[in-house]
Amino acid sequence: MLARILCLVLGYLLGSIIQGGYWLGRFNHIDIRKYGSGNAGTTNVMRTLGKKYGFLTYFLDIFKVILAGIIVNFCIAPHFNISELLLFLYAGFGTVLGHNFPFYLGFKGGKGIAATSGLVIALIPFPHYCFAFTLFGLITFPLVLFTTKYVSLASLIGIAGFFIEFVIWDLVGFLPLNGTEHVEACIIVFLFAALGFIRHAANIKRLINGTERKMGEKKNG
């Protein structure tokens, strides 16, 4: 239990402190959460500050999850008889929580999609074809995005697909997990997906109503 708590706390602190969208907004003398959709995520930064800052926000959000994984690998996992993958999932989930609910910003951050994609990318070095999660994401997200022009829909299908793929990988024995870790890991990945859907509740309503903004569409367009 101690290892899991350490990973969650580590991830939460990294996710909160490395709040790319918020700090880039401050660099441009604005609180990004008072513009556009009102969150500090990649999409809102890109729409408000432009592509350069949007991509920089995305890379920072990926970086903090990868950094959490590196710390888990070298500083936490060696001291516990627990799968490194499981501990990394806890750290990654903590990072997304910190990204979404930063303690020093009134718990108002982003929606966690970029950070979750960082976790998927960081799974590449794990054995038994875990690189396939990233490959599937690189196919699914742009395919849905450029077909529908909805960033939110592409994000939702991407995280739902990640959960389904993870469960399949576990069922066929590809994941380096032991005993009850299999169920525990699947639950954590489900929480990733569930949190993503919860954070996109307003987007889902707009998608159903046909009022969701498409990629490149102006606010009043």
TrEMBL record:
Q: Does the keyword Acyltransferase apply?
A: yes
Subcellular location(s) per record: Cell membrane
Family affiliation: Belongs to the PlsY family.
Q: How does it sit in the membrane?
A: Multi-pass membrane protein
Q: Which UniProt keywords apply?
A: Acyltransferase, Cell membrane, Lipid biosynthesis, Lipid metabolism, Membrane, Phospholipid biosynthesis, Phospholipid metabolism, Transferase, Transmembrane, Transmembrane helix
Q: What is this protein called?
A: Glycerol-3-phosphate acyltransferase
User: What gene codes for this chain?
Assistant: plsY
Q: Describe which pathway this protein belongs to, using the record's wording.
A: Lipid metabolism; phospholipid metabolism
Q: What does this protein do?
A: Catalyzes the transfer of an acyl group from acyl-phosphate (acyl-PO(4)) to glycerol-3-phosphate (G3P) to form lysophosphatidic acid (LPA). This enzyme utilizes acyl-phosphate as fatty acyl donor, but not acyl-CoA or acyl-ACP.
Span of the signal peptide: none
State the InterPro entries in the record.
G3P_acylTferase_PlsY
- Please list the GO terms describing molecular function: acyl-phosphate glycerol-3-phosphate acyltransferase activity
Q: Where are the transmembrane segments?
A: 55-76, 85-106, 126-146, 153-176, 182-198
Reaction(s) catalysed by this chain's protein:
an acyl phosphate + sn-glycerol 3-phosphate = a 1-acyl-sn-glycero-3-phosphate + phosphate
Subunit composition and interactions: Probably interacts with PlsX.
GO CC annotations on file: plasma membrane
Q: Does the keyword Cytoplasm apply?
A: no
E.C. code: 2.3.1.275
Biological process (GO) annotations held by this record are: phospholipid biosynthetic process
Please name the Pfam families in this protein's record: G3P_acyltransf (PF02660)
